[in-house]
Amino acid sequence: MTTVTTRDVEERAGRAEEGLSAWRASAAAVGAADRDAAEAGVRRAYRQAGLAEPREVVWAGSPCAAVALIQASRELGASVREAVRSRPWARERQRLHAELGATGWAAHWAATGGRLWDPTQALVDRIRAGVLEELAGGQTGSTAAQVRLVLLDAVLGQHDAPWLAALAADEGPLAGLAAVSRSAGWWWPFARVAVVCERPVALHRDEAGRLDHGDGPALAYPDGFALHAWRGMPVPAAFLAELPRLTPRRIRAEENAELRRVMLEYYGYDRYLSDSDARPVHRDETGTLWRVELDGDEPVVMVEVLNSTPEPDGTRRTYWLRVPPSTLTARAGVAWTFGLAAQAYAPVVQT
After folding, report:
1. For the chain, domain boundaries
2. pTM, whole model, 2 decimals?
């Protein structure tokens, strides 16, 4: 077996870095698919698998529409995903693993696909859950099982970017799959027909890579299929529309604790305390401790801290620090934000 040196691994990682940004862009791409390029990639993927090209490529506006189409059609033929995606994928991964060895492969994955995996897979999981909800309505019987099977049979197109980045797929046996990934969304290969999805028209995520948008869908497809989320948590569309009109009374009336937390984040904890006529429970030289009880949920406990350094205009900015419900003093709350016990918090100079 060929010996792979540390320098070999570093050089390979360097080359992979050059293409990583392009694969990251593919995974997050929005806007109309390049249909000509995608269809050429589909046909190439069939040929590379040793199969006859599909007689037709059918387009769907979203994964949801594609699943519905597949379930309703009897003209597609048998799934050929195993030949088109699974087997060539496994062979290429095995070849690279044998070439690099276990340690080299781990380092290579960490420098390439591993850097795209978490946010991309989280998005895939959310799309699957959204399609299941749309087509099975929360059911757990045979309808839901059938939808899940179709979803698991998809080739993920642009969301296969992590693996394609690691396998250097623009040339070689995965080149057809890579061409589709750079040009379109999810797709399903069948013996007679390939079903290919458009890419999203909108994608909004927070700094942690979670779906997040307060003014409409966090993810939207051209046919209207959409997912709404606040900092990664799925929320109903009507719920988001209500956020600009929130009041403390409405927040307290919300029975769903998770949705109430979203309301509080949107409204602002400090504003909620002020508008709720909350009263301080403790005050010392570090700040003021506030507490508001919430039915069926943990209380909102915050420390109001006045910045010791004045602004250019001479005013001092107030900060609000949310602390654990068990906090009893302002000092303990401020100390907690530094990972200290109250008795250990004694700053020499405040900034």
Report:
1. 6-199, 248-342
2. 0.77
